[in-house]
Specification:
The chain is α/β, with parallel strands linked by helices and about 325 residues long. It is built from 16 helices and eight strands. Strand 7, helix 10 and strand 8 form a beta-alpha-beta unit. The two termini are about 35 Å apart.
């Protein structure tokens, strides 16, 4: 979810769901160490529980970032071993790390030594390129679990490191939920979270029957109010905010972010265009935000005006 699940999106998501565990976008250790540390690690206290997802293959850099994550109060540190993009591969991290399990082990141990009281987890694929047998996945999990990793998020598709784009890697390789389910059977002491193709409540219930958890990616971004269905049907929550209330609650947040950090309105509202997906007025809402959020005179009340447009035209 690179460039998508930033702190503004996560604040928005938390207004919809109080129970889901939120993950940051993958952040490279270099960006944190050599860039603007606070800009990359800053978040809103309302986002908890919150996991920091790191991208790197350098144990020392990961340890330093783990220490910073502890200072910032993150609840979990996740090492990405699943992203197949060319940019990530050039940095020798993401999915290509699955071919180097001993290096992943070293990364995990180094982070855990630095922050023994914060869980260090891994997100991976079921395989990469022609390293796609169940035995390969089993060995990978066996090694990283022996290193102390107790929670593994498995995207149930293999990744092609060459020949497919990141988008194609999310759609073309077939889903293999049975692989993740078998890992859970073979490693019952581990927390196994299933990821990939989960778009409905029934999908999530299936995932929870096979594994310990479900990770939702693009469906939650493109249809954010899906999180309200998860609150109701998975967490049995009875007090849910409606879409209009969520939109209005974002107005003071936008005003605060603009005042404190000079954050443009469009930087935040871009995450909100799917709020009314599949609802009456969805196109009006999406179009109004898209056509007006970038204008220099636009203020936080764009959300109130967009709601008024829905009422007026439906």
């Amino acid at each position: 979810m690179l460039d998508w699940t930033d702190r503004h999106d996560r604040y928005f998501m938390r207004l919809i769901s109080k129970n889901v565990l939120l993950y940051t976008e993958m952040i490279s250790t270099g960006a944190i160490i050599h860039g603007e540390t606070d800009r990359f690690l800053r978040y809103n206290k309302e986002e908890h529980p919150l996991a920091l997802q790191l991208g790197s293959s350098t144990p020392e850099e990961l340890a330093l970032c783990a220490k910073k994550a502890k200072e910032y109060g993150y609840d979990e540190i996740n090492l990405n071993c699943g992203c197949p993009s060319d940019r990530v591969q050039k940095g020798r991290f993401g999915a290509c790390l699955m071919a180097e399990p001993d290096l992943v082990v070293n990364c995990i141990k180094t982070m855990q030594d630095e922050v023994p009281d914060i869980p260090v987890t891994v997100k991976c694929r079921v395989g990469i390129d022609h390293l796609d047998s169940y035995a390969f996945l089993h060995t990978f999990v066996e090694k990283i679990s022996a290193a102390g990793c107790k929670k593994i998020i498995i995207h149930a598709r293999k990744a092609w490191l060459t020949g497919l784009s990141p988008k194609e890697n999310r759609d073309i390789p077939p889903l293999q939920y049975d692989r993740a389910a078998q890992i859970k059977k073979d490693f019952p002491h581990l927390i196994i979270v299933l990821n990939g193709g989960l778009k409905t409540i029934d999908n999530i219930k299936t995932a929870l029957n096979l594994c310990d958890g479900a990770m939702i990616g693009r469906e939650a971004y493109e249809n954010p109010y899906f999180l309200a269905d998860i609150e109701k049907n998975i967490f049995n929550s009875t007090s849910l905010r409606d879409r209009q209330d969520i939109a209005m609650a974002m107005i003071p947040y936008i005003e605060e972010q603009n005042k404190k950090y000079g954050t443009p309105v469009k930087t935040i509202t871009r995450h909100m265009t799917g709020l009314f997906k599949e609802q009456k007025g969805a196109k009006i809402w999406r179009r109004y935000l898209s056509e007006n959020a970038h204008l220099p005179q636009t203020k936080a009340d764009i959300l109130e005006k967009a709601l008024a447009e829905i009422i007026k035209n439906t």
